Amino acid sequence: MIELIKQLVKFGFVGGICFVIDYGVMVLLTEVAGMEYLLSCGISFTVSVIANYILSMKFVFERKDNMDRRVEFIIFVIMSVIGLGLTELLMWVFVDKADIHYMISKIVVTAIVMVYNFVTRKIFLEKKKSS
């Protein structure tokens, strides 16, 4: 249980760094470049995925010995694309349907998608501990 808590803290730290990247790029593209929020949100999420992969696989999850790194990255990207779909759907619901400002919506959506990310990465990418 202690190991899981440590891992969650590391995941939260890495997620925080990636959130700053994601949020910063989204606001920059929306406010400075005048891009529509759903497009800027998709681009910023994609940019943060690369940083997230590198940091997550280095500091959070123990790699599977028998998994090719290309396969690992492809799985990570597929799970991230699903996360992007969840992000886009939830952003649309919160902003367009619930009329919540996109900056506030992004914080709530990130917390929701973070749970999905941790669980799926732990299941599909992490080396199983032997009992």
Task: Tag the structure with descriptive keywords.
131 residues, mainly alpha, 4 helices, elongated
Number of helices: 4
Number of strands: 0
**Secondary-structure element order, N to C:** HHHH
Number of domains: 1
Query: Biggest β-sheet, characterized?
Result: none
State Rg: 15 Å
Helix % is over 70%
> Which structural category do the helix and sheet elements fall into?
mainly alpha
Name the quaternary structure.
single chain
What average pLDDT do the residues reach?
A: 91
Beta-strand content bin: under 5%
- From the N-terminal CA to the C-terminal CA, the straight-line distance is 14 Å
What does the overall shape look like? elongated
Please give a structural write-up.
- The protein is an all-alpha fold and 131 residues long.
- The protein is elongated and about 50 Å long.
- Helix content is 82%, strand content 0%.
- The protein has one domain.
- The mean pLDDT is 91.
- The protein contains four helices and no strands.
In short:
This protein is mostly helical. The chain is 82% helix and 0% strand.
Blueprint (SSEs and pairs):
Blueprint: H1 2-32, H2 37-60, H3 69-97, H4 102-124
